[in-house]
Design brief:
Blueprint lengths: L3 E5 L5 H13 L2 E4 L12 H11 L18 E9 L2 E2 L1 H9 L6 E8 L4 H10 L5 E9 L6 H11 L3
Parallel strand pairs: 1-2, 1-3, 3-5, 5-6
Antiparallel strand pairs: 3-4
Bound molecules: flavin mononucleotide.
């Protein structure tokens, strides 16, 4: 029996929509990464602070309860694309936990670009795992079709 974890960060809710659909489709555990550090919302300030945080390789402290990654053979990681990479709380996750010999799938929400680079970087951050798929969505909150695509994609993972 495959045991699957969906773990994700969301800033404005798009990645959450996808994560919950994938979790429901696969009957997987779903964990939203939370941090004590908050990013400014609204205006262009969010791009400045978030972008800077990516460029400096920040690893904000996660406030989640400890995650038992050894329980899962498959980990599906979701992130918004930030400055052509994954969001800093996802860096914290891959840094805090020893993730090896897992099946890894990745999904991302973005505004129109950078998902390929984001997936490459996440792969680099997770050596010694098997990558079984990735998929990117343009602003899922505004494109409800994404939700169905996410379910289909998840059902086809193996
Ligand atoms: C700090 C920051 C950096 C971003 N950088 C990119 C980017 O490089 N490429 C892109 O297409 N969208 C970028 N976006 C837009 C988000 O990826 C997009 O709105 C995504 O759907 C948000 O997901 P969320 O609602 O789960 O936070 C950025 C957003 C923020 C806040």
């Amino acid at each position: 029996m495959m045991s699957t974890l969906v773990v994700y960060f969301t800033f404005e809710g798009s990645t959450k929509l996808i994560a919950e659909k994938i979790g429901e489709t696969l009957k997987a555990d779903v964990i939203e990464l939370k941090t004590s550090k908050t990013y400014p919302t609204g205006g262009i300030g969010k791009y400045f602070w978030g972008g800077k945080s990516v460029i400096f390789g920040d690893k904000p402290t996660l406030t989640n309860e400890s995650i038992n990654v050894s329980h899962y053979d498959t980990i599906i990681i979701g992130t918004p694309v930030w400055a052509g990479s994954f969001a800093p709380p996802v860096r914290s996750f891959v840094n805090d936990y020893k993730i090896v010999n897992k099946n890894i799938a990745m999904f991302a929400s973005h505004g129109g670009g950078g998902a390929v680079k984001c997936f490459e970087k996440l792969k680099e951050a997770l050596p010694d795992n098997k990558f079984i798929g990735d998929i990117a969505f343009v602003e899922p909150k505004k494109n409800p079709d994404s939700i169905n695509s996410a379910a289909k994609w998840a059902a086809g993972l193996s």
